[in-house]
Design goal:
binds adenosine-5'-diphosphate; Rossmann fold; D-amino Acid Aminotransferase, Chain A, domain 1; Dna Ligase, domain 1; binds magnesium ion; elongated; 3 domains
């Protein structure tokens, strides 16, 4: 299943710098003392910013302009000891482990510049707006015309006339500034194409009171299916910011998605996962997660799949729904039995198996006599049974 890899702002800034986009001087720190030292090194006003995989930091109080060491100490201490709750996080918020201390700039105007994949047009699109800053989501919703779009040619990328048009739309008339803005747009497009991005965004790009054009916040997501060919991105991967279960699953080539309900779903194939979740909802239940064991699953990976699902405390019941094509029903049955023996099932596990080696699978399950295992006739029966058990 396609998903994206995220990086921190400081890592995105490094890629911008490499592409020739000017960014203010900064350092990454993990303690209050180091934040103060970084501030002193910058010499002058600085901004302290939480490094987390979520935006909306400014409004949440996790981007703070500081004039002196006391303010830096206070800001850094606050950010490192409180979870950040913003419009982009859940109510539980996220822990902040790293801070960026960056040189502050005197902003005259804030712009938005981004490159994303346009799925409808099947090519990347560059988007710019003169209304950059912390309100861009509101702008996109209420004033979509304030965002100017320009689609990349599939082979030639951003053409010169397109780049010039975007710069004009942003209102850069001064020659040197227009050139600087063009360089930023080009740099961002280069990064997007070179690193297989799903999103590359600068928000805001600023024009300072003395006419400099600088990127002061950046966000980048990369297509997971392409990270194998970018050593640099692999080095940027930060496992501490990921869902622990999703990582464990990845190690075994399983796809695990955490959700909010109480029914764990072990399925094969993303389409079957969707159908399974639809049926659970139809019968009044809510999925807690789904774990897709894929086509060629081994017994070891399937056991790990159970460990992952059962380690989620929200799970009160499990629905195993396997359509055995390449994945064999007896492999899943063996894994179920091994998992029951190894981990012990304290909650009901409703099992619907169909397809390759299903007869053998049923024999195995029957012989194992595991009381928590509840066989189901078909998918509807399975969904009804598991919903009744957790209700
Ligand atoms: P977020 O998008 O997560 O809220 P930003 O880095 O975009 O975080 O910061 C929010 C706002 O804070 C910016 O729009 C800008 O007005 C201000 N800001 C951020 N960095 C600086 C800086 N280096 N100098 C001056 N102002 C800044
Ligand atoms: Mg921003």
């Amino acid at each position: 299943m396609a998903s994206t890899m995220k990086v921190h702002e400081y890592q995105a800034r490094a890629l911008l710098a490499e592409a020739g986009v000017p960014v203010p001087q900064s350092s990454v720190v993990e303690s209050v003392d180091d934040a103060v030292a970084a501030f002193n090194k910058i010499g002058g006003r600085a901004v302290v910013k939480a490094q987390v995989f979520a935006g909306g930091r400014g409004k949440a109080g996790f981007v703070k302009l500081c004039d002196n060491t006391d303010q830096v100490r206070q800001a850094a201490d606050f950010m490192l000891s409180n979870r950040m709750v913003s419009v982009q996080t859940g109510a539980e918020g996220i822990e902040v482990k790293k801070l960026l201390v960056a040189s502050a700039v005197d902003i005259e105007s804030e712009y938005y510049v981004a490159v994303v994949m346009d799925r409808a047009k099947r090519c990347p699109v560059v988007m710019v707006s003169t209304e950059g800053g912390v309100e861009i989501e509101v702008v996109a919703k209420e004033k979509p015309d304030a965002i100017v779009k320009c689609w990349l040619h599939p082979h030639m990328g951003l053409l010169n006339f397109q780049c010039a048009q975007l710069v004009t739309k942003l209102g850069f008339t001064d020659k040197a500034q227009a050139k600087a803005a063009a360089k930023v747009i080009r740099g961002l497009v280069d990064i997007f194409l070179k690193y297989d991005c799903a999103l590359a965004e600068i928000n805001p790009l600023v024009r300072t009171t003395d006419g400099e054009v600088l990127a002061i916040d950046a966000k980048m997501n990369f297509d997971d299916n392409a990270t194998f060919r970018h050593k640099k991105l692999q080095e940027m991967f930060d496992p501490t910011e990921e869902n622990a279960n999703e990582l464990r699953a990845k190690e075994f080539d399983l796809s695990y998605i955490a959700l909010d309900g109480s029914i764990g779903c072990l399925v094969n194939g993303a389409g079957l996962a969707m159908a399974t979740m639809d049926l659970i909802k139809l019968h009044g239940g809510e999925p807690a997660n789904f774990l897709d064991v894929g086509g060629s699953v081994t017994t070891e990976a399937a056991i790990e799949a159970f460990r992952i699902i059962l380690s989620d405390e929200k799970v009160n019941g499990v629905l195993v729904n396997i359509f055995g094509g390449i994945a064999k029903c007896d492999t899943i049955a063996e894994a179920l039995i091994a998992a029951a023996q190894e981990i012990g099932f304290k909650i009901p596990v409703v099992v619907r198996l169909e397809g390759t080696n299903v007869e053998r699978a049923r024999e195995l399950l029957e012989a194992a006599k595991i009381p928590q295992l509840i066989p189901a006739e078909d998918l509807t029966d399975a969904a009804k049974k598991v919903c009744a058990k957790v209700a």
